[in-house]
Each structure stands twice: as C-alpha cells, then as structure tokens.
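[step 3/7] fold_predict: job queued, chain A
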Amino acid sequence: MTTLPSGDAAATFEAHRGRLFGLAYRMLGSRADAEDIVQEVYLRWHEAVRERIENPEAWLVTAATRLSIDRLRRLKTEREAYVGQWLPEPIVTPEPPADHHLELSEDLSLAFLTLLERLAPDERAAFLLHDVFDVGYDGIGAVLDRTAAACRQVVHRARERVRGERRRFDVSEPAKADMVQRFMTALEARDEAALLQLFAPDATWTADGGGKAAAGLNPIIGGERMARLAVGLREKFWSPIRTMRIGTINGEPGVCMFDGDRLIATMSIATDGERILAVYAVVNPDKLH
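[step 4/7] structure written:
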C-alpha cells in the first residue's frame, strides 16, 4: 500500500483545517488545545495509507473528534480545580472567524460554549457533530463506535440539556451590535441608571480570572447588583492608558478592554434584543495573550 502523495495530502487537509479547528475549539473551549488537536490530526493524516481512506473528510473529522474527547477527559480534573468560574478562551478577531460560514455565530458564542460544559465528552461530540456540523447519525456512530439509534438518543438528550435551558431569541446582528454599544457607552460614563435599564432583572455576570486577575468566584445575579458591580469595576481599575473598543468576540460583537495595545479583558453578552441577559467577562491573562 502506498501513502498519500504529500502534495495531495496537504491540499486535502488544508481544505478541512477550518472545520477541524472549529470542531476542536467547540469541544475544548481553548485555542491552544484546539490547535494541538489540529496539529496531531495533521501528523496522523500524513502517515495515513490511501487504500484505507474512502472519505477523507470523514476520516479527518473522526480523528479530530476522538482526540478532542480524549483531551477533554484529561482536562476534567484540571477544570474541577480551576479557581473561580471557568469560561472558554475567547477568539478575538477583526472579522468573524474563517469557519464562520459553516454555522451560526450563536453556536460559537461564549454563552453557547459555556452551556456545552454541562455535557459529557461523548454527548458534547455527538451534539456538535449533528446540530452544528450537520453530520448524520450513521456518521456519528462511526466516530463514537455506537449504533445510529443510540447516537440519536444521545443527541436528543444533549439537545434537551443545552437547547432546553437556553433562552433562544432571533436577534439580528445590528441589534446585538447596538446593545453592545449601549453597554460600553454606559460603562464608560459610569452611568449606573443606564446600565440598570440595560440589564434584565435576573441577568447574570460571570467573570473568569483563573486566580490570576480580580474576578468574583461566583456569578453575580440580578440587574441591580450587576449595575453596581460594573460601575465599581470601572472606578476601581481604570487608568489613563486603559481603553474600551467594540470587537468581534467568537463571531459576535463584544467589548474589548486594552492597556495600551495589550488586551486585558473581553466582555461578551447574551441578549434578547431588549435587555442584556448575561455578561461573560474573561480577565484571566493566560486566555488573552
């Protein structure tokens, strides 16, 4: 048996690189871990034998999924010992990510990825493959070594846990951007009343400092508490070189905070178009390099 010609192998892999990274990132919530998975798949792909691969895309997706499941299981103990709230590592880009066209941006958002943490590794993989990457149950069964019927049940249970507990709203991108702009404007002005008008009464503020930056160990619940917190943080931690800008965070508009040119915080929101339902603030420097 002969190996794939290096040129053909490289071109085939590159055609699917964005999809593999998107899958691994959604599985692991970490850019570095996702890049490691993609690199490992790349190495295995170049060692593969032509006659054993009927469908290159399916082979690559299977390899990335199985490696991600194994990595997620190993990360379980580390995340259980994490200081405070763990949030996915944000992807900050001038424009939506390269794989943005493959799925809705809401399925890349921090709000969505945080909900995925409720799922076991196999559940997470099955749910993402079916609902985000449009893989059929037979294909998922081949990845997870289960029957198509069993995978259908796994996806159904995972969907109920994620979608059922997730308030879904059809909010346009302009409406999201407008809400983010209003939030940043009120925060810059230290306008507690304006912030209170923006936050839903039962809104939540979750911050990830990882024990390396100031952040509450538990989520803040309630619009009034959040408004006071936001103004207090603005007062306490502001400096002459600190600025806020609108950026693209995981495919959606969000607030980026800088010290000079150094990113020190990201704030993503979930909204119904009328109020802010949740704020996800990442201040752990290890996730912002």
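[step 5/7] annotate
Strands lie at 92-93, 199-208, 220-221, 242-249, 252-259, 262-271, 276-282.
Residues 100-104 have pLDDT under 50 and may be disordered.
exit 0
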